[in-house]
Amino acid sequence: MPDLFPSLKYHDGLIPVIVQDAKTLQVLMFAFANEEAVSLTRSTGYAHYFSRSRNKLWKKGEESGHLQKIVRICVDCDEDCLLYLVEQTGCACHEGYASCFFRTMEGEVILPRLKDPADIYSR
Fold this sequence. Notes:
Its cofactor is Mg(2+); Zn(2+). Helix content is 11%, strand content 30%. By secondary structure, the chain is mainly beta. It has a single domain (5-120), classed as Roll (Ubiquitin-like (UB roll)), CATH 3.10.20.810. β3 (48-51) and β4 (56-59) form a beta hairpin.
């Protein structure tokens, strides 16, 4: 099987990444990665992303301790989107929820908050 890393299609230097819990398949979050983040994710076994708001590379959990250990990386049929299947430590969401998708379009919160965000980032 060929390594698809060289053929990934980045838009403005970024590729979308969907993140799922490897056991439950719950969607945990969505983020972007640049080539360096994808390379670091593959070499370290832990999820790395590129923050558009901070304009920098980041390792998920570097401040909170809520790491994402990579179980598998899948590539979509167009090679322009990645799916990380992970073992999540702690919360995936910086708001203290297991998933960033914790509310409906109507604003109803459908997941319990696991941690107070102030506690997550006061380490």
